Amino acid sequence: MSLILILVFPYIIKGDSVSYQFEKLWPHLLEPWYFNSPCDIAIDSYDNIYIADRLNHRIQKFTSDGSFILKWGAYGSGESEFDNPRGIAIDSFNNIYVSDTYNNRIQKFDRNGNFLFSWGIYGNLDGQFNNPTGICVDSSNYIYVADRGNNRIQKFKTDGTFILKWGSYGSGAGYLNGPHDVTADSSNYIYVADTWNNRVQKFTSTGIYITNWGSYGTGIGQFKNPEGIESDSSNYIYVADSYNNRVQKFTSTGIYITNWGSYGTGYGEFHRAENLAIDSHNYIYVADFFNNRVQKFKYNGEFVSNWSCWGTNNGQFRYPSGVAIDSGYIYVADRNNNRVQKFTLEGSFIEKWGGYGTNDGQFNNPYYIAFDNSGNIYVSDKNNNRVQKFTSDGIFLLKWGTYGTNDGEFNQPMGIAVDSLNYVYVVDKNNNRVEKFDSNGTFITKWGDSGTGNGQFNSPLDICVDISNYIYVVDNGNSRVEKFDSNGTFITKWGTPGDEDGEFNNPTGISADSSGYIYVVDSDNYRIEKFTSTGVFISKFGSKGSDDGLFDNPYDIAIDNNGNLYISDKDNHRIEKFRAIVLSSETNTISNVTNVSRSKTYVFPNYIDISENEKTLISPGKSGYFSIKIYSLTGSLIKSYPNHYFTDNEYVEWDGTIQNSNKKVGAGIYFVIIEGDNFFKNIKMIVTR
Description:
By secondary structure, the chain is an all-beta fold. The strands form 15 sheets. It has a six-stranded antiparallel β-sheet with strand order 52-51-58-57-54-55, with no helix packed on it. It has a four-stranded antiparallel β-sheet with strand order 2-49-48-47, with no helix packed on it. A four-stranded antiparallel β-sheet has the order 3-4-5-6, with no helix packed on it.
């Protein structure tokens, strides 16, 4: 027996006395039309629409009017995981076949997204693939795959059994160059989008060449990288003429009928028409790749509807960037719509101003926003290389700046901030400096140049001022934050490239709250990180996705007087609000000296003997929905019990094992974190041996 003295020091595993809970977002979509490079579309016998949502690495299913049904998939190489799915097809039994392109395989699912099996590996042998893209099923349920990197078409049974192949690299009849898609008509003739040969080729179902049509160009019947092809019930052939941003319609022998589409973001316009599908009523659905949407048309090209998370109407956004709050309103730099929008803090639209141009009050990529003490608004008008000043109602007051490197000139002005004395600080991104002005745009001073040293920058993006008028700059290219006094004297810095706590991957936004804490938008890590004013990491939240509370390249952050956070979720084209919840901590303490055997384990407040498989009981002590997590002193998750409803006397049992392991914890201090709605409980536990 030995005497062990245990001292307990204050410690909060979250590193923070405030939790942030998702509260709302706007605009609120009728359906979750969040796509990231939609690549292909397929339609089942019920006219349900399946979309290969390529860079979200998932499949989404909708009704023909766009009502969401389900989704499945995530990035990876396991079952039901994808790496850039680029093709999708459906057999007569409504089974789903997905070209999992970078995993070089085909995955098969039932109509509810349940995994059935997969086939294929990287290679050029029969049944192997090199970046398979398009896929189709003929009326006999044979599967045809555009094996793009191998410049061939492969044919399979529905169980993945290889049947035959045809094609090799070349430009002659029957040869292929980067074939992207394949389709079958009702007579089982096979049509191939021979993408880099800028043509369509027609074959029998056994690969015998019949004919081809098309050449490189923008004229009728010509193509620029056609990537999608589909046949309707009358055997008309529709081609997604991708880089001509249009759809062309032909007879089955290649006679031109009509076309529609042009480059743009309006209805009926495309930014790379990637692929298409046709339902039983001959409605045509087009995957509008870079516009991240699906458009629906009649058989003659007449526009019907648009499934998108972005827009140009009041309250809609296209890549919102800067956000700022003043007098109970939030202002958003609606970047690609070239305007500023004003909302209540609950997301109700108030007004807007701007428009594309170079005149007073017009914008060319407005990026960030700031306020002075009089409620005037300053907007960094990036591509016009100027700052514009407005009243809070959007009335133009003045502007300053032009392209250049001299004092008061800019090369892409980005972040903007105003201190308590109404001095204005502007991040001059491509000149790698910060410029300081008075509120009328008179130049005062500047600091910074290109480099990695203290006070130097590599494409700085944003800036904020804390309650003591210290300046914080997001030094994007150096993956760090730098702190200065108001005259530009360097004070400190923090951050390195990475995804660990306190590291950054494309930091884009920064803000300071009324307590002097600093919040950084870590965009490509899809999270927000919180620090002290000296750069000590406190907490973080966020991950990638389009569900409530998730992010897709968040860009900027603003904080209201109650500590609530407002984040521009750029690539989801929305604003998300997170409510600040002050946590009340209930902590047990130990004041006694405990005599224990080294063959035993003592866990406060419960005694367990690991060797005898005894357990400690953990309970919230009240009814409600709670999650329970056990952490080590260094913050590593040891054990997690998922959120569920507890009755007053319900508990979970812990036998000292580590999550997903049979191993037991060692001696040390551990923490049980119990969380529920407006509830936080932190129990310290001591384990000794």
